[in-house]
Amino acid sequence: MCRANAKWMTRRRLLLVLAGTGIAAAALLFGGALSSGAHADPLAVLRANAAPASPDTEVIAKLLQGLSTGNTGALLRRLEHRVASRPNDADTLAALGLAYQQRGRETGDPAYYRLSGEALHRSAAARGPLPVIAQGEASLANTRHRFRDGLRLAREAIGLDPYNGSAYGALGDALLNLGRYREAFKVYDKMAVLAPGIASFTRVAAARELIGRPNAAAAADELALEADQTVPENVAWTMTQIGNTRFNTGRLAAAATAYRRALARFPGYVHADAGLARVEAAEGRYREAVARLRGVVARLPIPAYVIMLGDILRASGRKGEARREYALVGAIEKLFAANGVRTELQTAVFDLDHGRNVADALARARTAYASAPGVYAEDALAWGLYRTGRCEAARPHSVRALRLGTRDALLVFHRAMIEQCLGSASSRAWFRRALAINPHFSFLWAPVARAAVRG
Q1: Is the dihedral of CA 376, 377, 382, 387 positive or negative?
Q2: Left if phi > 0, otherwise alpha if psi is -120 to 50, otherwise beta: which for 184?
Q3: pTM for the complete prediction?
Q4: Which residues, including other chains, have CB under 8 Å from residue 302's CB and lie 6 or more apart?
Q5: pLDDT higher than threshold 50 for residue 48
């Protein structure tokens, strides 16, 4: 039997087995973005009936085996050495391109994204595995916040291999950031059936949080940990996401537990350390938080953590030190932009929050929204209009930013500020709602919300 027919028969058998075990139960699990999430577990069924690996997926399997050691740097050196001795080894070039993306994720160095693009291009020129290359290029486009390119490339990858779970992940990510949520959720569901594991279930978790179901999101992340613990960094990332979900609902002790769990699994994990620093600062332990965050920024100097350090320094009264941290943000953003990463949304929100270049920040927020009209870009546009005194124009964008029911206190706070600007009697209720979701939602703005409630 040819490979294509064998794959079709395997998939047909999988669907029949799922029908026998109850499609509704599977949909509740994998379609968790649109449901509360049942805990029936068809994972064993999915694994037992998974399609045989194609030559293309074998490239991914070998890469995952290398990443399972937790030492991506060593893996990169091995792959680079192999490419140096065999410059036209298309499979190794494809694996190298994907490994560069993992390293960029770990280090925050956007130069790895440029290297990834170069390696994937060389693999294509050497007639490498086209489904893997297209999937890698789609993921790279999304990482660079070029979501329309990501959408096109992900569709190309799926056209080349309709069973490539990672390609469905890239497709869902692009759709999500373009504001096409129902389409994105359906794609994540399909990915979870095709490739049940940490990559698919964490996406379901993120979707659940987006529609305002944080407990269901944490349950999906726990399921991800049950399904797959191959790559230590991915495991630690998932544990850290559980911590972030707990923090975002004001549960500091539960958040700290999740972050420590990640550090126990992957010692020194920088994102978990950043999470612990945020908990420490929320508890008023500024000295500990600053010391921890300085270590984080030394290892991973990305804007989010530099801004957090500055905001904590400012909250603790060290305004001069805060300004020095803020001054670094622009330089880091330029480095990202030089390596092909779009930064309009991040720079706009930072400048709007800190009263810098406000008119230009509004223009960047407009650009970000035009290129990727998701709820966070819409919220940034609303915030920019508010900060430039255009509160009436800001309100409909803030309303739309909350249309999914997202329980994000910062989005609710922005709505409160807009309502206050318009003289609405509902503004105090919006401030209360933000604080009820998470009383520690922002080192800059939570004190403003508390003052508004006291009135």
Answers
A1: positive
A2: alpha
A3: 0.85
A4: 108, 332
A5: no
For 309-315, the CB contacts below 8 A with 24+ separation are 311/442, 311/443, 311/444, 312/277, 312/281, 312/286, 312/443, 314/443, 314/444, 315/281, 315/286, 315/443, 315/444, 315/447
Which has the closest alpha carbon to 165: 185, 140, 193? Answer: 193
d(CA 190, CA 271): 29
User: Residue 229 class from Cβ within 10 Å (0-12 exposed, 13-18 middle, 19+ buried)?
Assistant: middle
pLDDT digits (tens, 9 = 90+) for 370-402: 999 999 999 999 999 999 999 999 999 999 999
Given a cut of 80, whether residue 61 has pLDDT beyond it is: no
* φ and ψ at residue 246, rounded to 5 degrees: -65, -40
Lookup: tokens for 289: 């938080």
Residue 446: closest CA among 278, 244, 211, 242: 278
The conformational region for residue 41 under phi > 0 = left, psi -120 to 50 = alpha, else beta, is: beta
Residue 392, Cβ density class (10 Å: 0-12 exposed, 13-18 middle, ≥19 buried)? exposed
